[in-house]
Each structure stands twice: as structure tokens, then as C-alpha cells.
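Shipment paperwork, digital attachment
Item: protein structure file
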Amino acid sequence: MLALTRKKGESLVINNDIEITVLEIRGDQVKIGISAPKEVPIYRKEVYLQIQQENQSAIENVETLEALKQLF
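Attachment content:
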């Protein structure tokens, strides 16, 4: 993991087309802004993990359905 120190208003750039800017620092919270192309999905980690779980469940359900179809 790369750890960087940034102050309010400072940014970092990832892969030439994603910019992350520190917008506000209040106590132990940091508000960031992300500029990226529309085709780049951006999720909070907890939402991303939930999507991954739902996708895995859907795959398992499809596999179960296919196995049931094989029985008939």
C-alpha cells in the first residue's frame, strides 16, 4: 500500500485519468472528491463487498438451477 500525506485542496492522480482531491478535513473524517471517466466504477468498499457477495450468490444460484435442469 502506498501511503501519502495530502492537505486540504491537494490532489493525487492515478493512471493519468483519475484525480482524487482532499476537499475537507473535519475531526477524524476526510471528505474526498474523485474525478474519473464515466466508465470507471467507483464504490465505497462496503458497497463493493456487498455487490461481490450478491454476484457470488447469483452465480451459485445459476449453477444450482443448471444442476436441477440436468436432473429433468
